[in-house]
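Writing this down once: the sequence line spells out the residues, with the fold written below as integer tokens. This is how one looks:
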Amino acid sequence: MRSGRVSSKASGGRHKAVAGLVGMAAMACLTTAGGHAQTEPPVCADRPTKSNNACTADPGTWQLETDLFNASFQRSNGATTDIYLLTNPTLKYGLAPALDVEANLVPYEIVRMHQGVVTTRFEGVGDLFLRMKYEAIAQGPVQMALMPYVKLPTARMSIGNGAVEAGAIVPLNVMLSDAWSLGVSPEFDALKNAGGSGRHFNTSQTVVVGYALPNDVTLNAELWADWNADPAGTSRQYSVDFAAAKLVTNNFQFDGGVNIGLNRATPDLQVYAGVATRF
């Protein structure tokens, strides 16, 4: 999951805002890399887009999905905020058919803010996200999963908010044809109030279209929106996102993308590249 606010949520990593995904991986799961064993399905990952997929890690296998580089840039009212993630790994383990557990932690994150002649910089580890995914509908052209998560405050203040938070995502994938796919990934969160104690409602939505090209390449176009009902003031973020993925082998995917903010509350630009591998 990569949120436009650069704030990781269950979708995956504090900055899939810079973090967690649907159309591209869904198509990859239904294509077979030439020259590889036909009995081994291609890896299906919750990347590269902000959406999540309904598929889970295979039983008894590990899966690693990570940004190798992730940067977001925002200019608003004379202030500049740049955020860099030096990797953003999500580790998954398949517990049973249609059920996996997942952990996500940014090992090193840089937040740089500049306004006028003042520059402030924060560095350190991100928050820890623990998730479980259950694929409730696993057969046919429509797949759906339930994905609850909890965030543990392992990041320092100014990178995180020091609070335990939780929520759930409901990924839904639809195969429209052999080449086209559609995905939606609504998310619902209980987040800490910015002004102190208490929680408020946050929700985000993605709609992503994937198209499978020859040679195991998939292209994605996505719309993302987030509504945060904090008592201190409701914020809304919107972005249009583009991504591509290449299935190198059935166990290894390389991908990258760009997210473009559509309003001042959203980072103007986010660029990233990463991989997914199964072992």
Q: What stands out?
A: The helical segments are 23-30. The domain at 23-278 is CATH 2.40.160.40 (Porin). Residues 124 and 151 are 17 Å apart (CA to CA).
